Amino acid sequence: xxxxxxxxxxxxxxxxxxxxxxxxxxxxxxxxxxxxxxxxxxxxxxxxxxxxxxxxxxxxxxxxxxxxxxxxxxxxxxxxxxxxxxxxxxxxxxxxxxxxxxxxxxxxxxxxxxxxxxxxxxxxxxxxxxxxxxxxxxxxxxxxxxxxxxxxxxxxxxxxxxxxxxxxxxxxxxxxxxxxxxxxxxxxxxxxxxxxxxxxxxxxxxxxxxxxxxxxxxxxxxxxxxxxxxxxxxxxxxxxxxxxx
Length: 245
Fold this sequence. Notes:
This protein is of the alpha/beta class. The protein has one domain (about 1-240): 4-Layer Sandwich (Purple Acid Phosphatase, chain A, domain 2), CATH 3.60.21.10. Helix content is about 30%, strand content about 20%. The chain has eight helices and eleven strands. The strands form three sheets. The chain has a five-stranded mixed sheet, with no helix packed on it. Strands 2-1-10-11 form a four-stranded mixed sheet. Helix 3 packs across helix 5 and helix 7 (about 220-230) runs antiparallel to helix 8 (about 235-240). The longest helix has 13 residues, at about 15-25. The radius of gyration is 17 Å and the shape is globular. The N and C termini lie far apart (about 40 Å).
């Protein structure tokens, strides 16, 4: 069994297309999307249309939820851009996505934590920076999900594999299309990364799951130019180099 895991596309159509092509070449059995599908100053409507045509099992991310839960005045600039690009029906479709997806009792897919789509699972804030979460905090956030074989999470945009002691394997596939969410302060980032499109593949062998973390080249200069043309210079920098000054 091979399962591709994507997350945090944030409207980056070209990064998504590169990841989907790579997934097809690797002959996986299924693909799951962990949410935050379109919020970003790039191609929200086109990304929505592509995802709709694929009909992947998809978890609702916090930015997907905010398309309905928050007023336009309370949205961050990139969310406002996506909100304006989508039809009301499309925004409500994103909002109606499930908060979690269960795969045969073995795998739980979430966006942030099992209980909160806007909280990191394997990271915590320390002196205005993100660091790995303590074991006690991780146990608290996992709750009963710690007994699963695998928990899939996104939200932090940080690609990682974490083995919870005596419990689940936690896999964050990283972000398909948003190496730095440029609407939030740099202090909440992990520092310089890279502009690659990221995802993960889970493989089950002899009853045990392992994970591959992948980082792909795509035309990130085109994505950067799109953000710049749409009036988002910090996003343009983040997409081009994987960090913001």
